[in-house]
Specification:
Layout lengths: L2 H10 L3 H28 L4 H12 L7
Length: 66
């Protein structure tokens, strides 16, 4: 059995209040991992082309108020 399968079985056994607590924890964990990846990508310059494209669209008038 893999670690993932063990985790899946453990989650399936959680009581409703424990599952809600786990969901909150996982949402925060996942958001922090996403933020860290975005920060690493930005620091490494992997988002530069997207920023340049967005800036060019803005300068060309290709944006609107939301």
């Amino acid at each position: 059995m893999t670690d993932v399968q063990s985790i899946e079985k453990a989650v399936a056994r959680l009581a409703p209040d424990e599952l809600a607590q786990f969901r909150r924890w996982f949402a925060q964990f996942d958001a922090a991992a996403w933020d860290a990846q975005i920060e690493a990508d930005a620091a490494a310059g992997r988002l530069d082309a997207l920023a340049e494209e967005a800036h060019a669209d803005y300068c060309a008038g290709g944006v609107r108020e939301v």
